[in-house]
Each structure stands twice: as structure tokens, then as C-alpha cells.
Write a structure and sequence with these properties.
Layout lengths: L2 H40 L2 H32 L3 H34 L8 H25 L2 H31 L4 H33 L22
Helix pairs in contact: 1-2, 1-3, 1-4, 2-3, 3-6, 4-5, 4-6, 5-6
């Protein structure tokens, strides 16, 4: 085996190990996405607390991915597409970590809402959003592993579906607040939850866009399809 072949095989081996960590992160975030919505709908405080605690595992995996990727770049000196792959890994890990944070935020608010009555069918709508987001994330990660630009583009287009659910939920919450001022506090918590879920969809879309960058060398140049038409600004950090 030539020296160049040895370096390539070493890079591929190290990259496979990092990608395994990325997929483990993805699995944890997918579970947290569905579980945080289930904790809200079922008023399951114990599940919510487990989601909050499990976020530490996602954070730890991101730190490991960052460390291993930095070591890979330093030791293997990747160029061209290999370097692009390494940079994409860092972007995906960061997006997954943020999604985990948003799931944790939803779980924390769920424990507050568990102490009061439900606001109509809003919790089931949040769960429907969560199912959309979880499937987007799953497909985005599949697109990454398969280097599937068409699937990544499909995920990107589906972000508007999450936005539309968010818009509908926002209008429902506004109606509840106008009709019953006593519901304002709970509705504000629910809006915060819905906005976190909508942002999770944005990050899943961002992962899909990184797949496009990985395969083509360029991010999509057309505007991201968006369906968020609300003028309400929530205090949610990007």
C-alpha cells in the first residue's frame, strides 16, 4: 500500500468513527423530539425530567465530535472534498446540539403546564409538529449518509409544513387568549414551546442544506421555503 493510500484509508476510518457519533447524536435528538411532545400531551413530568437530563449526553457527544474532527483535520490534512466532509460534520453536530437544547426547553415548559389544565387540543398539535420535525431530521441524516441531494432537497421543502402548523397553532392560542384572559400564561408557555419546535424544524432543514453543500460544494442559492407568517416575536435564542 502506498503512503497516499494509507493516509486515505486512515482518514476514512477516522471519519467513519466520527459519523457513528453523529448518528448516535441524531438518534438521541430524534427520541427527544418525540418524547418532549409526548411529555406535554400526556402531562408526564417524569419523562420531561428525563429529557432534560439526557441533554447532557447530546452535549457530550457534540464535544467528542468536535474533538475528533479537529484531530482528524490536524493529523490527516484532508483536502478538497475530504475537508468539506469534515466541516459538514461540525455543522451537523452543532445543529443537533441546538435541537437537543430546544427539546430540553420544551420539556421544561411541559413540567410547568402539567400543573394546570390543557388549552384545547394544542398539545396534540405540538405533537403533530414533533412528528414532522422528527421525520425531517431522520431523512436529513439519511441523506447525509447516502449523499442524497434529492432527499435533502425534499427535507428542505418540507420545512414550510412545520411553519404552517406553527401558524395555525399561533392563531388558536391567540383566540384562546382573547376569549379567556386567564389562559394567557399557559398560552404564552405553549407559544414558546411551538416556537422551539418550529426552530427545530429549521435546524433539520439546515442539516439538509449541509448535505447539498457536501455533495455539490455550494449551499442552495434559492430562498428557503418558509411558511411562518406570524408577526409575534418569541424570546427564543437561535
Amino acid at each position: 500500500m502506498s503512503q497516499s493510500q494509507h493516509i486515505v484509508s486512515a482518514f476514512d476510518r477516522d471519519l467513519e468513527a466520527v459519523q457513528a457519533q453523529i448518528m448516535k447524536m441524531g438518534g438521541l435528538v430524534e427520541a427527544a423530539t418525540l418524547d418532549c411532545a409526548r411529555a406535554l400531551e400526556d402531562r408526564d413530568e417524569e419523562l420531561a425530567r428525563r429529557i432534560v437530563a439526557a441533554d447532557r449526553d447530546i452535549d457530550l457527544l457534540e464535544a467528542q465530535v468536535n474533538e475528533e474532527t479537529a484531530r482528524l483535520i490536524a493529523l490527516r490534512g484532508p483536502i478538497a472534498s475530504d475537508l468539506r466532509t469534515a466541516l459538514t460534520v461540525l455543522k451537523i453536530a452543532a445543529a443537533l446540539e441546538r435541537m437537543g437544547d430546544y427539546a430540553k426547553n420544551v420539556a421544561k415548559r411541559s413540567t410547568v403546564l402539567a400543573q394546570s389544565g390543557p388549552v384545547g387540543e394544542t398539545a396534540s398539535t405540538v405533537r403533530r409538529m414533533a412528528r414532522h420535525v422528527e421525520q425531517m431530521l431522520k431523512d436529513a441524516l439519511d441523506a447525509y449518509i447516502r449523499r442524497d441531494v434529492a432527499l435533502a432537497a425534499d427535507v428542505r421543502n418540507r420545512d414550510k409544513d412545520v411553519d404552517q402548523i406553527y401558524n395555525a397553532l399561533f392563531r388558536i392560542l391567540l383566540t384562546h387568549m382573547l376569549e379567556d384572559p386567564r389562559s394567557i400564561t399557559n398560552c404564552m408557555h405553549l407559544h414558546f414551546i411551538a416556537k422551539n419546535m418550529e426552530r427545530m424544524g429549521d435546524h433539520a432543514t439546515g442539516i439538509a442544506e449541509q448535505v447539498v453543500y457536501l455533495v455539490t460544494g455550494d449551499l442552495p442559492d434559492d430562498p428557503r421555503p418558509k411558511g411562518d407568517s406570524t408577526a409575534f416575536v418569541a424570546s427564543v435564542n437561535d
